[in-house]
Write a sequence for this structure.
């Protein structure tokens, strides 16, 4: 799988392409759009989508009352806001889930600090609760990983805020096809390897760009720790990633927006499949992401 890496220094972008054909087998269809090469991929039919959007009842048990939601799914102030001195204390691999697919491990994944996952902030999926911190409250970040172009994973307002706060100090890693978008938003070593690894999903940001940009997971390989960020994915045979790059110290694996299963199975894993990914990765520990933040489909419990 190819990846693009950019650093916003000197208002220019450096492209770094890596092809992991043995692992990913990424390919384009006859119309130049990226495809999923696994037999487990299936996009919902028009009849499925119509039933889901119009006829299906939402049996999710996510609380609707703010009081109940605050009790069942409280948003806690992160440790680096409560106690900034803790950043100076020696520690192993520290992870903070900031909601949805945004995870902080000195590397930030799919940052979204906006109230809505939309190109308009007065409509579209709204957060159940506000983000646990602002971009300005974040500690030092070395890199940002983007997994795909959907609005709940690639948020223009958050990208602009991160660039304002950190500027040329940040390295950005995006799948192929998103570099031009990033260049328009961001004016513009370490012995750690960033590998753009596969996921089973799709991409879309406008009415006419279906699968024009690639989607991905990310494997971050350091001298002492290995971190896997799944992004958005259905379960597929790509989790041979664990045999190639594992074992991982930490995995960030999605569990939400998974019902109804006949509609969502190809593109979103459920909790049981997330456990299987954890095992496939040979991960020592994993954190659940992509849940309890936006109402994107149906999911059970919080």
């Amino acid at each position: 799988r190819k990846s693009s890496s950019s650093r916003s220094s000197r208002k220019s972008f450096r492209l770094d392409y890596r092809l992991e054909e043995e692992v990913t087998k990424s390919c384009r269809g006859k119309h130049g759009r990226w495809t999923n090469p696994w037999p487990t991929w299936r996009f919902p039919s028009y009849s499925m989508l119509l039933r889901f959007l119009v006829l299906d009842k939402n049996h999710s048990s996510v609380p609707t009352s703010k009081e109940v939601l605050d009790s069942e799914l409280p948003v806690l102030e992160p440790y680096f806001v409560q106690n900034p001195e803790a950043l100076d204390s020696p520690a192993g691999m520290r992870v903070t889930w900031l909601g949805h697919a945004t995870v902080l491990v000195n590397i930030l994944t799919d940052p979204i600090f906006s109230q809505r996952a939309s190109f308009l902030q007065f409509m579209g999926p709204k957060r159940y609760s506000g983000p646990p911190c602002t971009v300005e409250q974040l500690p030092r970040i070395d890199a940002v990983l983007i997994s795909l172009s959907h609005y709940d994973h690639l948020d223009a307002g958050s990208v602009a805020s991160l660039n304002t706060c950190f500027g040329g100090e940040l390295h950005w890693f995006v799948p192929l096809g998103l570099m031009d978008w990033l260049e328009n938003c961001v004016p513009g070593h370490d012995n750690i390897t960033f590998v753009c690894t596969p996921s089973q999903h799709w991409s879309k940001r406008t009415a006419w760009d279906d699968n024009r940009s690639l989607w991905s997971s990310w494997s971050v390989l350091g001298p002492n720790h290995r971190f896997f960020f799944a992004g958005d994915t259905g379960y597929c045979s790509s989790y041979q990633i664990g045999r190639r790059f594992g074992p991982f110290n930490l995995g960030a694996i999605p569990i939400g927006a998974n019902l109804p299963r006949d509609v969502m199975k190809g593109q979103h894993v459920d909790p049981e499949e997330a456990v299987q990914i954890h095992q496939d990765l040979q991960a020592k520990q994993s954190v659940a992401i992509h849940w309890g933040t936006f109402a994107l489909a149906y999911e059970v419990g919080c």
About this structure: The CA atoms of residues 80 and 86 lie 7 Å apart. Residues 156-166 form the longest helix (11 residues). The first strand starts at residue 3 and ends at 7.
